[in-house]
Design a protein that fits this description.
The complex is a heterodimer of chains A (about 270) and B (about 300). Chain A has about 270 residues and is mainly alpha-helical. Chain A has one domain. The mean pLDDT of chain A is about 90. Chain A contains eleven helices and two strands. In chain A, strand 1 (about 70) and strand 2 (about 75) form a beta hairpin. Chain B folds into two domains: about 5-220, 3-Layer(aba) Sandwich (Rossmann fold), CATH 3.40.50.300; about 230-290, 2-Layer Sandwich (Alpha-Beta Plaits), CATH 3.30.70.270. Helices cover about 35% and strands about 25% of the residues of chain B. Chain B is built from eleven helices and 13 strands. Chain B has helices at about 45-50, 75, 95-105, 110-125, 140-150, 170-185, 195-200, 220-225, 240-250, 270-280, 295-300; strands spanning about 5-15, 20-30, 35, 60-65, 80-85, 155-160, 190-195, 205-210, 215-220, 230-235, 255-260, 265, 285-290. In chain B, the strands form three sheets. Chain B has a six-stranded mixed β-sheet with strand order 5-6-7-3-8-9, with helices on both faces. In chain B, strands 11-12-10-13 form a four-stranded antiparallel β-sheet, with helices on one face. In chain B, helix 3 (about 95-105) packs across helix 4 and helix 5 runs parallel beside helix 6. The mean pLDDT of chain B is about 90. At the A-B interface, helix 1, helix 2 and helix 5 of A face helix 2 and helix 3 of B.
């Protein structure tokens, strides 16, 4: 005999955060998987292709003009120089695709979260489930990109495998933060503002050239941006460089994840429990 | 009397200076079909959201199956089936996937839900549509699916907010039939509506709400008895002549209401009243005798029409 909905809801009663969390974010993931199975695969493929196209065109096109680049770990090809930055961007794009436009649609148009929160689910279940899904997409993009890097001979040490967990941390941070911001957005217009910010961040975060081309104050601003932190995290992890700097990068993302989760839950609660 | 399933005293909800629900008291018994009748903005939907533990009351007491929604929100929601005013079906999924995942949100096992799906599809008359994406369904089908979906968790209370608004007459009658079956099975129904015929068809008892307050509470038949006469005579003289006729007609009827396009004369015997009027040599352009309805009750209580 299966448990009833009431019995199930009473199991978590008295536990910490029982008003906000039913312990079932995996059901939100399952919902996304069912929807994804029959969705347009072309959207998935195009999101993944973007950084690959950058790698091929810039890495081997511009790379032929630039030649090798000297870094702290020695001489590398231009393609190998830009690959970690593109990997971080790929993880970011994958995570943001789900946590921004898709979340906006579910929040404001299909009213899906209204339906979820009319059941015994809580806002933290919804936030965690959606963020986990976005991070899975980011992680999948990053893994595929790592395989391509490896096939192109751009990964020279075993540390290269750390690209995947590093990219997943980056994806988690962007997914969490992206969903928090989206939950406060009221119109498509505001959403576009958000995207206006992303392109310069991508171009100036030093994925294509060393940050030293900028003056000190410029470098300081860029280093405070999440994509730069993500690029450093992936580059250091892939080089096996376990330093305080790496710890700072990881901490930056942990804070981003926690802040994002906190505000997403708070906002969903305010929107649906008013 | 059986112990009440829902118990509200002085229930109040304010948004800033605006009082949406103004200190209302009511009790709903198990198996009862209870209605909230009133125009848009009367506070019906807000009351429903507070009961559904998706809105927090400002003051007053409220218990649902002995639990306080402020403390036990998720536990109360596990008892409820919610059919909102605006459809919020999962448009990216098929009909049966919608029921399946909704059950999973409650934490129900897949085997339990899969056993229930055919039964719910049959109830909603959607067996042939089970693999269709929701987007392709008609308004009536969507509403029936929303009801079927809400039943997957075997709720003790089914809450329907304006269940037939926006549906064509045929779709409304199909839906009423389905809801009537649930009522027969002993499901407690909570219904908000601004349609008097819907309230008369479905509700055992109802409260008439206006501007956040309860104006009256009783069974539909008793409300009509208490606040109106048995029959109503509707007469039209043309919009410019209606007003001058009122004073002539007033002594003849028990009560009189003037609407923009017609005059309502309340009497126990409408035909007899019409004869009296004709005997005075007054001949309206059109006349109609009908039974009193909840619309008349509302007009009496608030001086306004229900559907404006």
């Amino acid at each position: 005999m299966s448990s009833t909905a009431v019995e199930l809801s009473e199991r978590r009663l008295g536990q910490f955060g029982d008003k906000y969390f039913a312990g079932r974010p995996q059901q939100v993931l399952l919902r996304n998987w069912i929807s994804f199975k029959s969705s347009a695969w072309i959207a998935v493929v195009s999101g993944f292709l973007e950084p690959v196209l950058y790698l091929l065109s810039f890495g081997y096109g511009v790379g032929a003009l630039v030649g090798n680049i000297s870094t702290t770990t020695g001489q590398v090809s231009y393609a190998a120089f830009i690959a970690p930055g593109l990997l971080a961007s790929s993880a970011m794009n994958g995570a943001l695709l789900d946590s921004t436009w898709n979340v906006f649609f579910k929040l404001n148009e299909s009213r899906l979260y209204n339906a979820m929160l009319a059941t015994s689910l809580g806002p933290l279940d919804v936030a965690l489930g959606e963020i986990a899904w976005a991070l899975m997409r980011g992680g999948a993009y990053a893994t595929a990109f790592t395989i391509i890097m490896s096939a192109l001979g751009l990964i020279t040490t075993w540390w290269g495998i750390l690209a995947i967990p590093a990219a997943i941390i980056v994806a988690f941070g962007f997914a969490s933060f992206g969903m928090a911001i989206t939950s406060y957005m009221k119109s498509h217009h505001q959403m576009n503002f958000f995207y206006i910010f992303l392109l310069p961040m991508f171009l100036f975060s030093g994925a294509f050239y060393p940050l030293t081309v900028f003056p000190g104050w410029g470098q300081a601003i860029i280093k405070a941006l999440p994509l730069r932190q993500g690029i450093e995290l992936v580059t250091r992890a892939m080089a096996g460089e376990f330093s305080v700097h790496l710890l700072v990068n990881v901490t930056y993302f942990l804070v981003m994840i926690c802040v994002g989760l906190f505000f997403t839950t708070k906002r969903l609660n305010a929107l649906f429990m008013k | 009397m059986t112990k009440s399933l829902i118990h509200a005293r002085g229930l109040t909800k304010t948004y800033g200076d605006f009082v949406a629900v103004d200190g209302i008291d009511f009790d709903v018994a198990k198996g009862e079909s209870f209605g909230f009748l009133g125009p848009n903005g009367a506070g019906k939907s807000t009351t429903m959201r507070i009961i559904g533990a998706t809105s927090v009351r400002t003051s007053g007491t409220l218990t649902i199956l002995g639990k306080d929604p402020e403390v036990n929100g998720p536990q109360i929601r596990a008892h409820l089936g919610v059919v909102p005013q605006q459809d919020n079906l999962d448009v990216e999924l098929t009909v049966s996937e919608n029921i399946f995942i909704y059950g999973r949100y409650f934490g129900l096992s897949s085997s339990f839900i899969n056993k229930k799906i055919p039964e719910l599809l049959e109830f909603a008359q959607l067996e042939e549509k089970k693999d269709t994406k929701v987007q392709a369904l008609s308004g009536g089908m969507k509403r029936r699916l929303t009801i079927a979906r809400s039943l997957v968790s075997e709720p003790d209370i089914l809450m329907l907010d304006e269940p037939t608004t926006g549906l064509d007459p045929q779709a409304r009658h199909i839906l009423w039939d389905r809801l009537f079956r649930l009522k027969e099975q002993g499901v407690t129904l909570l219904i908000t509506t601004h349609y008097m015929d819907e309230a008369e068809q479905l509700c055992d008892r109802l409260i008439v709400m206006d501007k956040g307050k309860i104006m009256a509470e009783n069974s539909p038949a008793q409300l009509i008895k208490d606040y109106s006469t048995k029959e109503v005579l509707e007469v039209r003289f043309g919009s410019d002549k209606n007003h001058e006729m009122v004073e002539i007609l007033r002594p003849l009827a028990e009560r009189i209401e003037v609407l923009p396009d017609r005059i309502l004369l309340y009497a126990e015997d409408g035909e007899h009243l019409l004869e009296q009027i004709a005997a005075k040599g007054i001949h309206p352009n059109t006349s109609l005798v009908r039974r009193s309805s909840l619309e008349d009750v509302f007009l009496r209580l608030t001086g306004r029409s229900l559907v404006e």
